[in-house]
Write a structure and sequence with these properties.
This protein is mostly helical. The chain has 16 helices and 5 strands. It starts with a helix and ends with a helix.
Length: 432
């Protein structure tokens, strides 16, 4: 990987893409330091320490919530909108047609995703601000009060604009940089907050806790990295034979190759999706805590307790969410590839399998079986930090190791794209 990175800097086009990506991340971190006006820093610090949900949001947003930055919501409203669109695509006929129209159809679906992101971001911003106001963090906030509605609306629009700006920066990285832009934004935020997490491990608590927490952090980090690499690199190779063709007296084709079906084709997307879904009920509960009806307040309290990241039931739901999203995203990507149709069009076939529908059923069965291993492994790796936190008693380890899952996964995907770009340019040089 390091060799690929060094080789990329020798090619002007790739060097420009890498520097562009780094530049966007620098802009992101600079904007993340701009706070929303009227924030009580001391009250905010106490709230983040006592609220596990907000602590996780703060970590994944790159510590932008620690000073209630204008980017405090990160890109999670966009991720939630993406999940909604992917769930609706197989159900709504029009969206299903667009998904089969190639790049133009995907661009239209992406446009709809942007439209949905704005109201979701507004609702999430309102929920966060209400929680901040009731916790004494935000003063003079009240959207339905005659004295404070204008300032409150300005804060909400600022937070929504911050999320929209992050999504735009992510798309700039996707188009002009290296890697998936939204994943890179999340990656940059988590990496920026990791030094503080490690510092809390080293300097927080007693000396025994420091040593235990640091050793546990290193051990779980190594196990997590090894597990993610094995899951991402594992694949099942399906042999494929190409039929020989005779054209103008010459023979073309022939030979054998293989289809690499990955154990985890979804990468770290299921983990990001699962975290986004698990965060959403907490946002809904924030709306309900101030209700005048007792049963609504009790329901909000029950939701807050159930979706506490330190509870066993949360981790069980989290595990099954990761497994379900791994299957869902893998099948969506697999169906879009149309491997059986492409093989039949190229005159290729899998030995012992008839082309067409039989090939599609065979490949679907293989993908289903190997994805079970990848989904279970990814789910275990996802809840492994929780188990380690309960064993060692170090809660910082839970958040730090959870973020490590996304960091390693995004790094592997980005390096794979970089190596693919290098290989493409090497082939071009060979042809010339």
């Amino acid at each position: 990987m390091l060799e690929a990175a060094f080789n990329a800097f020798r090619i002007s086009d790739l060097r420009r893409k890498i520097l562009f990506t780094i530049g966007i991340l620098i802009i992101f971190r600079f904007i993340a330091t701009i706070p929303v006006p009227g924030v009580d820093r001391a009250a905010l610090s106490d709230l983040l320490e006592n609220n596990q949900l907000l602590g996780m949001l703060n970590l994944f947003s790159g510590s932008t919530l620690s000073n209630f930055s204008i980017l405090a919501m990160g890109v999670y409203p966009y991720i939630t909108a993406s999940i909604i669109m992917q769930l609706l695509t197989p159900i709504v006929p029009r969206l299903n047609e667009l998904s089969q129209e190639g790049q133009q159809g995907r661009n239209q679906i992406n446009k709809y995703t942007h439209y949905i992101t704005v109201p979701i971001a507004f609702l999430q911003a309102y929920g966060q601000c209400v929680l901040m106001q009731r916790s004494g963090v935000l003063s003079d906030f009240g959207l339905f009060s005659g004295d404070t509605w204008f300032n409150s609306l300005a804060i909400l629009l600022t937070l929504v604009a911050g999320t929209t700006l992050l999504v735009w920066l992510g798309e700039l990285i996707t188009e002009n940089g290296i890697g998936n832009g939204v994943s890179i934004i999340i990656f940059g935020g988590i990496v920026a907050s990791l030094p503080g997490t490690v510092g809390n491990l080293i300097y927080g608590g007693t000396t025994t806790q420091n040593i235990t927490g640091t050793l546990a952090f290193v051990f779980i980090g190594l196990v997590t990295i090894i597990g993610i690499v094995l899951i991402n690199e594992g694949q099942r190779r399906i042999p494929v034979h190409h039929a020989k063709r005779v054209r103008r007296g010459r023979m073309y084709g022939g030979g054998s190759t293989f289809i690499p079906l990955k154990v985890n084709s979804a990468g770290m997307i299921p983990l990001i999706f699962a975290v986004s879904i698990m965060v959403f009920p907490g946002t809904i509960a924030n709306f309900m805590t101030g209700s005048e009806r007792p049963w609504v307040r009790n329901l909000a309290q029950d939701m807050t307790r159930f979706f506490d990241a330190n509870t066993l039931q949360y981790q069980i739901v989290y595990f099954f969410m990761v497994v379900a999203f791994t299957y869902f995203y893998t099948m969506v990507v697999f169906q879009q590839q149309n491997i059986s149709e492409n093989l039949q069009r190229q005159g290729a076939f899998i030995p012992g399998i008839r082309p067409g529908a039989n090939t599609n059923r065979y490949l679907t069965g293989v993908v289903t079986r190997i994805t079970l291993v990848g989904a279970l492994a990814l789910g275990i790796v996802a809840i492994l930090p929780y188990i380690a936190a309960k064993v060692t008693g170090v809660q910082t380890l839970f958040l730090g190791a959870t973020s490590l899952l996304i960091v390693v996964g995004v790094a592997i995907d980005t390096m794979r794209q970089l190596e693919a770009q290098l290989m493409m340019r090497n082939y071009e040089g060979f042809i010339r």
